[in-house]
Amino acid sequence: MTISHPRDPLHGITLETIIKELVERHGWAEMGRRVPIRCFLHNPSVKSSLTFLRKTPWARERVEGWYIAYKDV
Question: What fold is seen in the domain 15-71?
Answer without folding.
Answer: 1.10.720
